[in-house]
Fold:
Amino acid sequence: MKNTLHNACGIINALCFDIDDLVHGMNMKNGGNFPSEYLVESETYQLLEFLGVLQVKATMFVPGYVAERFPALVGAMADAGHHIASHGHRHIHAERLQRQGFREDITVSKQILEQIVSQHIDTYKDPCWGITPNTPWAYDELIEAGYTIDNTALPSLLKSLGRSSEDMEPFRYKGLLTVIPVTSFSLFSRSMPFNGGLFCAYIPISLQIKYYESLNRRGIPFNYFCHPYELSPQGANRYLWKRKAVAAGLYGLYFGKYRRYIEQLAVHFRFGSLKDAYESFINQSVEGCVSTFPVLVQSSLNH
Ligand SMILES: [Zn+2]
Structure:
């Protein structure tokens, strides 16, 4: 199926993938000891084939541990024209790493990716949305390490940065880091993430399309993501999680659904990488598009 660009306003929305190995990620998060077959390689090649058919370019957030094991896979993503970005090294979130560990992790992951693709890696997303109000140093560390774009900010983080939790417009942190908030949905004055993955897994695609159409009509691009195992689960990922506890079952039950979700979204919307979708915000020469970070909050975060 081809990306048929049905939306009238021609807005480009961002399609992103976190190139995680599911079992490895669960082990790192929960300290578990699941034997991993590293299905991420075959799942991601399937994803590349799928995107090739749709003729869509995306942002690929690649953890360093995946890049180290499968450098050819990262090369294939770059060769296919996708935007390569960092998803940390060991897939441990910032809150758990703490400042020094975070600094090392984001630096190593950047070096590994840059060595493979011979391009400057400037875009970041923290594993498990781990940049939170408890990590006020994280954005300063990203700047220090040479990143200029982040896509981790959930509504709860926006609030602590002195912005509205409903805000979906990118802004510049300290004039140096373009923060692209996670697309959200507000209900009874509470904002929640609404950008694919587990957040949208059980929301009918027709409702998702309606909501995103309403954003595009207001001139707002949305960002949408999933993991390769949610789109093209291979081997054990087709059934492993259905055999575990109820919560794990609910998690694994929808694997594979995202193939249909993204096919349908691609019929209604125009997609590209984060840089394509938010170019006017990222490009500093375009005036009036980026609001600046509030001075008062800047100084309070320095402590
Ligand atoms: Zn991840």
Remarks:
- The radius of gyration is 18 Å.
